[in-house]
């Protein structure tokens, strides 16, 4: 449940279009629904403006099916992240009202055509970083943001980035996804006047330490205006970028 749904229920009660008992039934799972193996936080959309997101990796398949079955009946755009193709094949029979994004490894439950605002650029250092970037991009789009994708413009061929700056300009913020040494966010932050959200990936050879070297590079960047999320955390970057982008519109600052 989100804030708009709650307002709609309360307005109908006030105007006599909905009786109190039916309103209570609609609100029975606020603040959460207890499935024993999971406590589904249906109050989150009211508190923070975004619905609960399901992290699927590591969950028992029967538990995951139970969670999805309950959420199918909710009128909300719900994301299930880190879902492998194998797991999707085991849950896709639950409903036709789901869309799976294989590269991003995201399942969208009750997908909606939401109005999109602003612009967020999602940029990668290499092609191997695209799955993490797509996790960010699909998250952004599901939450109502326009996204421009610029892939494979890392520092090994910096001219590729410069030739795409026109696409990046005008963004409310930038999600910069890179593995190896993780230099891309620093370069971008020195060229733009908006926040850069740096996403280190686990792409790289042995001394990359599965993304640790890229993470440390980004944390130690000399360029200002960078925030850093955890290794391979495309969802987290997309979530923060959505808050920044939509904040511009709430506060009347439209780029």
Automatic annotation (TrEMBL):
GO terms for molecular function: hydrolase activity. SMART domains: AIRC (SM01001). Pfam families: AIRC (PF00731). It comes from the Bacteria. Residues 118-250 form the PurE domain. One of its GO terms (biological process) is 'de novo' IMP biosynthetic process. NCBIfam families: LarB. PANTHER family: PHOSPHORIBOSYLAMINOIMIDAZOLE CARBOXYLASE-RELATED, SLL1489 PROTEIN. This is Circadian phase modifier.
């Amino acid at each position: 449940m989100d804030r708009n749904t709650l307002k709609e229920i309360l307005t109908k009660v006030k105007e006599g279009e909905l009786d109190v008992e039916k309103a209570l039934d609609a609100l029975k799972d606020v603040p959460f629904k207890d499935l024993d193996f999971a406590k589904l936080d249906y109050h989150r959309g009211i508190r923070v403006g975004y619905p609960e997101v399901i992290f699927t990796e590591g969950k028992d398949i029967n538990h995951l099916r139970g969670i999805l079955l309950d959420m199918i009946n909710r009128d909300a755009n719900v994301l299930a992240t880190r879902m492998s193709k194998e797991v999707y094949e085991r849950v896709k029979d639950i409903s036709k009202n789901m869309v799976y994004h294989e590269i991003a490894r995201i399942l969208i439950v009750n997908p909606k055509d939401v109005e999109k605002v602003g612009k967020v650029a999602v940029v990668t250092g290499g092609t191997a970083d695209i799955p993490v970037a797509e996790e960010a991009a699909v998250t952004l789009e599901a939450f109502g943001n326009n996204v421009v994708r610029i892939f494979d413009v890392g520092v090994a061929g910096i001219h590729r980035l410069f030739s795409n700056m026109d696409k990046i300009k005008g963004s409310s913020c930038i999600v910069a996804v890179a593995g190896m040494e993780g230099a891309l966010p620093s370069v971008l932050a020195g060229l733009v006047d908006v926040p850069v959200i740096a996403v280190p990936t686990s792409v790289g050879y042995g001394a990359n330490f599965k993304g640790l070297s890229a993470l440390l590079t980004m944390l130690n960047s000399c360029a200002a205006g960078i925030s850093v999320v955890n290794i391979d955390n495309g969802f987290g970057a997309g979530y923060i970028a959505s808050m920044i982008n939509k904040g511009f519109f709430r506060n009347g600052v439209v780029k």
